[in-house]
Amino acid sequence: MYHTWMRYFTPRPVHHRLGLVCLGVGLQHGQLPTVGPRTLDHHVAVVISAGSGWYRGADGRRTSVTAPALIWLTPGVPHHYGPDPATGWDESFVDFTGPATATYTELGYIEPDRPVVPLADTAGARAAVGRITRAARRGNPLLEVETGAAVHELLVALRRARADTNADGDPVLTALARDAFQPLSVTEHAARHGMTPAELRTVVRRGAGCSPKDYLLGIRLGHAKELLATTDLPVAAVSRRVGYEDPAYFSRLFTRRVGLAPIRFREQQGRNVPGGWSNRVPDPEHPPTIAGTWT
User: According to the model, what pLDDT value does residue 163 have?
Assistant: First the structure.
């Protein structure tokens, strides 16, 4: 015995230009029938929150699936899967497509080479699927945009929920962020962790979807923007504070990556707030107001 609910959508071409569109969503549980063998022309994230089963890909090899887990179905890849017939499983699935799938794959959020991914939990993914199911009501004029936005949330939630990812973040990434403003090379950062540069690249690529150099650059430029927008520090001083001893090099790097020179960025974004800048992140549920204060 099993229970199933599903809806399918046909977004217009204009919605595809948003990057991701949701093509369908489903919630199922029980002794479900097997799926396939089949091949799709789009992506599907199948989230297994309870139970167990199996998956078989193009190579014919059978892989056990034990909840909590994710099954990636990717375009052009033959697949065949199903729950154990005696126990069944609880499943939610989201079909999606769009040009942003290539970028999410490059960043490591979608893993065609790892179709079965153990998860630490499915709470975040189920919340995103829940937003899609609520948006799927008949006659919703915001259907395509709401469901597309929720697919972005789903991909982030699935990335965060991987069983091989520390919920507090990879310790190496945390340490790199802490030391990002020190004038250290990638080789020197690697040595601090007892790694070769190649090993550090593997860890950062797996955790952040980029090279160590780009990871550090993003943190440095983000802080540089904050200093330019909220202080009167000269560009040379900003450069030193974010780890660049040569302000000319910093200015060239900033301009190339941001699209504006540091001085021009300050002119556009400057909000000098002496005594008013805070490092405390406000509660998004209770943002600061005129009547309240936070420091």
Answer: 84
